[in-house]
Design brief:
This protein has 235 residues and is an alpha/beta fold. It has 8 helices and 8 strands; from the N terminus they run E-E-H-H-E-H-E-H-E-H-H-E-H-E-H-E. It starts with a strand and ends with a strand.
Amino acid sequence: MEIGGFLRLSLLDYPGKLAAVVFTIGCNFRCWFCQNRDLVLKNYKNLVVYSEEEVLEKIESAKGMIDGVAITGGEPTIQHDLPQFIQKIKEKGLLVKLDTNGSNPSMLEDLINHRLIDYVAMDIKAPFSRYKSEIGVDSDSLVENVKKSIKIIMESNIDYEFRTTALPTFTIEDFIEIAKQIKGAKLYSIQQYDNTNILDQSRKGVLPLKAETLKEIKAQIDNASLVEKCVVKNV
């Protein structure tokens, strides 16, 4: 496991739970709006790199205070030994939440089937018609993998949410199209865009959508009854 950050206690990263947070290094997407640029680009000089043993020791020391561990990145599922790492966490009696871009459906399905994760938050980056341009990778197979992961999650019994960063370039119609891609989902979270530490620094001048616009987007998704619940975060 390549780990480039650790947070001992968080109330924000695992819904309804107090959790430690593990940040993995590297990602197979290059989303211009990503807020974890150092992890994605492997800027080791700006990262605090931990060994797996160090992190497990820190989790053990926090065990009496936390309910679980949130694993984020970067993209955790590009770490080939992620299942073994999670198994060690589960052996401590802790819950595990996984953040993922959905690009590795086979690992995701394996983790779910072996009951190694208790909650998954999957990012839906854009309408499928423009997915490749937003993730910065010209790969049809990656987009197909995202579609497979959506299906795997929605057909499972695991707790989950789908998430979209509210890009200033998106229209209300774009959000409706995304909601259609996950029609029937339990929870769809729309997150406010933050331009402070994005991957593509040339776009730092792109300002977030107004709170009123995000509320209107939520209202239209609710009116269309596309998902069971839609929430707007960080506004």
